[in-house]
Write a structure and sequence with these properties.
Strand content: 25-35%
Shape: globular
Number of strands: 15
Radius of gyration: 22 Å
Largest sheet: 9 strands, mixed
Mean pLDDT: 92
Order of helices and strands: EEEHEHEHHEEEHEHEHHHEEEHEEH
Structural class: alpha+beta
Helix content: 25-40%
Distance between the termini: 54 Å
Low-confidence stretches: none
């Protein structure tokens, strides 16, 4: 283990509030009809902290995306005091009224915690095209801030983080959280750094710059610019490798925040340093876990599917080919039906436009060779059925055209996916 590769320790029950100096909570504010559903989350800090964000590339981007981008500035990094998130209404395709609602929600939080509205970021998730009522913010924000402030001990602070993770859910079947810690080296030697996070996401998922709604926190001291670089690099190899249904949301938002509470008085980590590399590794572990959680919890999914394409001529070719397999309805339904039909994988590879010679292609399903040099390899159908009972299905293909490789995470396509989306507004 080299000095920039310290052991990462997974924190049991860890989440967005695991890092020192992070306070979070969730309540039912009234965005949803069901009073048992938490629908407003708040992550706040005692003083301005480093923040960075990456967002959807969808041209129909939601009002909160526009507002948060503006608050972070052109470099997508700044100092902030809070992030407020509502579920149940996406505040997307809502025009100037939607922008005003997003700005007003920031003002309400700012008034409550005592900061500038520009020091508040906002995110929303839910139904597109419906105006967002500000009234639940007017009553919910003060109540939630008071609830967070009343967290008297560490257990209560962690519980608040778990409530926040529940409050951002839509069709998710469970909250998605993760946290790790490590003993830092270099300029931070002697200090324990923690990275934690929460994410929601189950459908309309194939982000190009971020993920659905995600908040990642750390207590490392780090400049906003270095944090943005770490977040961008992390998103490219984790959240950008997830696809449930090939659709990119209007609201994709991923925000990273760093309190510096792990090492008070230590100069902030700069981009390109060994300390930044250590922190980036912890970010990748947390975000890869959350990315896999998203894929495994895809709407109606019964299996997590991991698709690896090797032997591509370029990184772009590997990504294109892997996504073609991961997004193919025929591949996804074959997996749901426990059908070890490698021909559908070959079809998806062949249609994607990536250059290769079919005579060089090898394919494995669940570790079983099913195709070599573009031809069928006999396999035991009963053994294949047994392996399809595993919770994670793996597909591997080598195009024989180069040395580049990538992995994409997806899920199977079930009857339940159609039911969930057919009834989404009803």
């Amino acid at each position: 283990m080299n000095e920039n590769n310290p052991k990462l320790t997974v924190l049991p029950e860890g989440g967005v509030a695991s890092a020192a100096g992070v306070y979070a909570g969730g309540i039912h504010a009234g965005f949803r009809k069901n009073p048992q559903r938490l629908d407003l989350a708040l992550v706040e800090f005692d003083e301005p902290v480093s923040a960075a964000g990456v967002f959807t590339t969808n041209k129909f981007c939601a009002a909160p995306v526009t507002v948060s981008r503006e608050h972070l500035g052109e470099g997508r990094c700044a100092k902030v005091r809070a992030v407020v998130i509502n579920s149940g209404n996406a505040n997307a395709a809502t025009g100037d009224e939607g922008l005003e609602s997003a700005e007003q929600s920031c003002k309400l939080v700012a008034n409550e915690i005592g900061c500038s509205p520009r020091e508040v970021l906002v995110a929303s998730t839910g139904v597109i095209g419906q105006l967002l009522d500000v009234a639940p913010f007017e009553t919910g924000v003060p109540a939630l801030h008071e609830k967070i402030a009343a967290a008297a001990d560490e257990a209560a602070r962690q519980a608040g983080g778990h409530d926040a993770a529940r409050a951002i859910m839509t069709t998710d079947t469970h909250p998605k959280e993760r946290a790790v810690s490590y003993e830092a080296t270099g300029a931070l030697a002697g200090h324990t750094v923690t990275v934690g996070g929460m994410v929601k996401g189950s459908g309309m998922i194939m982000p190009n710059m971020a993920t659905m709604i995600c908040v990642i926190t750390t207590d490392a001291p780090v400049t906003p610019e270095a944090l943005h670089e770490i977040l961008l690099g992390t998103a490219r190899v984790t959240f950008n490798k997830v696809t449930v249904d090939s659709d990119t949301s209007t609201n994709d938002t991923c925000i990273a925040l760093a309190t510096g509470a792990a090492a008070p008085g230590v100069p902030a980590i700069e981009a390109g340093t060994p300390e930044a590399a250590e922190l980036a590794r912890a970010f990748r572990e947390v975000c890869q876990h959350l990315a896999r959680e998203i894929a495994a919890d895809g709407e109606g999914a019964s299996r997590l599917v991991t698709v690896t394409v090797a032997g591509a001529a370029s990184d772009g070719d590997a990504d294109t080919a892997a996504r073609a397999v991961a997004n193919s309805p025929l591949v996804k339904t074959a997996i749901y039906g426990h059908d070890c039909n490698w021909g559908r994988i070959a079809m998806a590879l062949g249609k994607c436009g990536v250059p290769f010679d079919q005579r060089d292609v090898d394919i494995d399903i669940m570790g079983m060779p099913v195709c070599r040099d573009g031809l069928t390899v006999p396999f035991d159908e009963d053994e294949a059925l047994r392996r399809f009972d595993e919770p994670e299905i793996t597909i591997w293909a080598d195009l024989g055209a180069g040395t580049c490789e990538t992995t994409v995470w997806t899920c199977d396509l079930t009857h339940e996916y159609v039911k969930i989306n057919g009834e989404y507004r009803t």
